[in-house]
Amino acid sequence: QGQLVESGGGLVQAGGSLRLSCAASGRTFSSYGMGWFRQAPGKERELVAAISRSGTRTYYPDSVKGRFTISRDNAKNTVYLQMNSLKPEDTAVYYCAAADSVGYYVIASFRNEYIDWGRGTQVTVSS
To answer: Is the dihedral of CA 49, 94, 98, 71 positive or negative?
Structure first.
């Protein structure tokens, strides 16, 4: 089983930026599609960014499109989430996740495709 460890969360003012990192181990990183999810209190866990194994295809929901950027460095076994123009509604615990059985250029869009999860990192955006 693979391990995923997130870092980079914290407290930031509205309009600010944060960069989350997720270090992977225990699996062949390039074999997995990667995603970032978030979960706010009382809400469902939602996908906020996903990237294909190739790193050439990405997905964002409308709520973060144009503000968040996902990237991966297969040589460093790390996936990143750059978050700009943060809003108070972005406050949540952010989780990194890995999806297997996806094609090289395919985006894993569904939560049940993800088999490994990190423990999460808190992001708090103050108004």
So the answer is: positive
Q: Using CA atoms, how far apart are residues 14 and 52, in angstroms rounded to an integer?
A: 30
> pLDDT (tens digit, 9 = 90+) per residue, 59-91?
999 999 999 999 999 999 999 999 999 999 999
List the one residue out of 102, 125, 124 whose CA is nearest residue 35. 102
Greatest CA separation found in the chain? 41
Phi, psi dihedrals of residue 63, rounded to the nearest 5° = -65, -25
First to last CA, the chain: 39
The one-letter amino acid code at 51 reads I
Tokens for 83? 């978050």
Instruction: Give the whole-angstrom CA distance, residue 50 versus residue 60.
Output: 7
| 37 vs 123: CA distance, rounded Å | 12
CB 113 within 8 A of CB 59: no
- pLDDT tens, position by position, 2-36: 899 999 999 999 999 999 999 999 889 999 999 99
